[in-house]
């Protein structure tokens, strides 16, 4: 029997787990959601969702990952099987926890390649180099044009996509310790340094006018507490930013040593993620926009979402500064490192499925996984609306659905006593059992309510104007789920 790897050092484990969670959601998605939903009006639902969903689910995934890993399983197929005597139905349900990260990484890795491409183009001054207007709509015109030409996709976009795929392929081939852990040990400290540097730059623009942006974000605002849309978006951000219900956290946890304190690891992971999200993600894009374009521009700059803020607004803002091309290079390199550590984590559950359940070699498991990811990435590049469809279903609907399944299965069906025994094994924090009932009972109800509003608010718009591109995307999603479900049965 092949011996499974374990993380070599605790600091490597902490940084790799943080790299799993820290991604484009922290630095791009978070500020765009804050800008669109009223700054402080978004933050209260966000913190409530973090407390009721984020922390409980994070700890749950660390607990089940360690438990299943000790028995030789790292993908959600195997994890579900471990808890229920390898029965077929739980393994089939678990295959959704492999499909979700795979479907997300199919489009995520394409966006990741943009960050690498834009970093190099910034360094060699190939992006627009200055802005001539204080009106953000006029100032962004050359950057919008460049972005559209690049992502059509252009030859350069495909070139950098191939480089990004090869980099992920290479690191995964090197394994847990010499690949993922080593990358995190280098990348995450570098990410923190660049993030702190850009935060200082953004806040100090125009005699520290950027500080007003922080006031916009953190000023208490209770005006939208009854708006379901804000709660849906805030909870969705918590899921996405912490990589919850994707199977990736549990897979990483399956490679820990048997006596690892997973409660501490869960808190470290969530804490470092929030440090980047609140400390860095909140301190760059919005403060810089405040300083250059003024308060009224904030919703405007984020109105088309993450891509407008990250690939158009921020380059335009940085272009107005001396040595703006250097700042732009650092900005996109920061995004690339954040995305790179996350894409490795999103692919690893599929690798673990092939290795642990189908018992194939590590190299072949990585090769098969990357061939599948490459196919999805090229479909994301060349099929219009493919990216948006995968983001909605895998990056939104399935996340909430699988989070509900995780709590229901691993806490309530497995048994509170059994879960509590594993939760409190080798941990510094002895959580009272009543808190398990409280947290995971409230979390289950909260997710159910959110899912109801998500269907009510979001779902209807995705069944209008169905095109062939959407049919291709949905066929790919269904085909992925069906194939992984069959593998779950076959590998039993």
Automatic annotation (TrEMBL):
PROSITE patterns: NA_NEUROTRAN_SYMP_3
Gene Ontology CC: membrane
Keywords: Membrane, Transmembrane, Transmembrane helix, Transport
Keyword Cell wall biogenesis/degradation: no
Membrane disposition: Multi-pass membrane protein
Localization, UniProt: Membrane
Keyword Membrane: yes
Annotated transmembrane regions: 47-68, 89-111, 154-172, 184-205, 234-255, 275-302, 322-352, 364-386, 392-414, 434-454, 466-489
Name of the protein described by the UniProt record: Sodium:calcium symporter
Organism: Thermodesulfobacterium geofontis
Classification of source organism: Bacteria, Pseudomonadati, Thermodesulfobacteriota, Thermodesulfobacteria, Thermodesulfobacteriales
């Amino acid at each position: 029997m092949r011996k499974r790897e374990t993380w070599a050092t605790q600091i490597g484990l902490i940084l790799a787990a943080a790299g799993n969670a820290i991604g484009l959601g922290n630095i791009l998605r978070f500020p765009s959601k804050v800008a669109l939903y009223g700054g402080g009006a978004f933050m209260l639902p966000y913190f409530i969702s973090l407390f009721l969903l984020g922390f409980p689910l994070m700890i749950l995934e660390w607990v089940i990952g360690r438990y299943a890993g000790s028995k030789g399983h790292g993908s959600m197929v195997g994890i579900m099987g471990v808890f229920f005597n390898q029965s077929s139905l739980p393994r089939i349900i678990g295959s959704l926890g492999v499909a979700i990260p795979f479907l997300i990484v199919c489009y995520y890795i394409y966006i990741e390649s943009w960050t690498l491409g834009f970093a190099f183009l910034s360094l060699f001054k190939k992006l627009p180099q200055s802005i001539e207007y204080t009106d953000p709509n006029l100032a962004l015109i050359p950057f919008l044009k460049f972005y559209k030409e690049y992502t059509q996709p252009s030859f350069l976009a495909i070139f950098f996509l191939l480089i990004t795929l090869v980099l992920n392929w290479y690191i995964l081939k090197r394994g847990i310790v010499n690949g993922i852990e080593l990358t995190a040990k280098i990348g995450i400290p570098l990410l923190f340094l660049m993030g702190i540097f850009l935060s200082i730059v953004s806040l100090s623009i125009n005699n520290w006018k950027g500080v007003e942006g922080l006031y916009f974000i953190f000023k208490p605002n209770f005006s939208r507490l009854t708006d379901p849309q804000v709660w849906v978006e805030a909870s969705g951000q918590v899921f996405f930013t912490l990589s919850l219900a994707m199977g990736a956290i549990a897979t990483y946890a399956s490679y820990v040593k048997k006596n690892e304190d997973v409660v501490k690891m869960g808190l470290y992971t969530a804490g470092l993620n929030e440090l980047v999200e609140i400390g860095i993600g909140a301190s760059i894009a919005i403060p810089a926009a405040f300083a250059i374009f003024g308060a009224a521009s904030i919703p405007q700059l984020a109105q088309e979402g993450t891509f407008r803020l990250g690939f158009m607004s921020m380059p335009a803002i940085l272009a107005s500064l001396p040595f703006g091309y250097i700042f732009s290079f650092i900005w996109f390199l920061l995004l690339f490192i954040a995305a790179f550590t996350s894409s490795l984590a999103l692919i690893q559950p599929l690798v673990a499925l092939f290795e642990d359940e189908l018992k194939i070699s590590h190299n072949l498991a990585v090769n098969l996984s990357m061939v599948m990811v490459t196919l999805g990435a090229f479909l994301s590049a060349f099929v219009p609306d493919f990216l948006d469809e995968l983001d909605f279903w895998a990056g939104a609907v399935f996340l909430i659905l699988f989070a509900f399944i995780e709590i229901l299965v691993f806490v309530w069906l497995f048994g509170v006593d059994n879960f509590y025994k594993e939760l409190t094994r080798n941990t510094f924090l002895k959580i009272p059992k009543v808190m398990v009932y409280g947290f995971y009972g409230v979390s289950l109800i909260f997710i159910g309510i959110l899912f109801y509003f998500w269907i009510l608010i979001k779902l209807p718009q995705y069944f209008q104007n169905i095109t062939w591109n959407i049919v291709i995307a949905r066929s790919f999603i269904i085909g992925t789920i069906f194939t992984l479900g069959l593998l779950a049965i076959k590998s039993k």
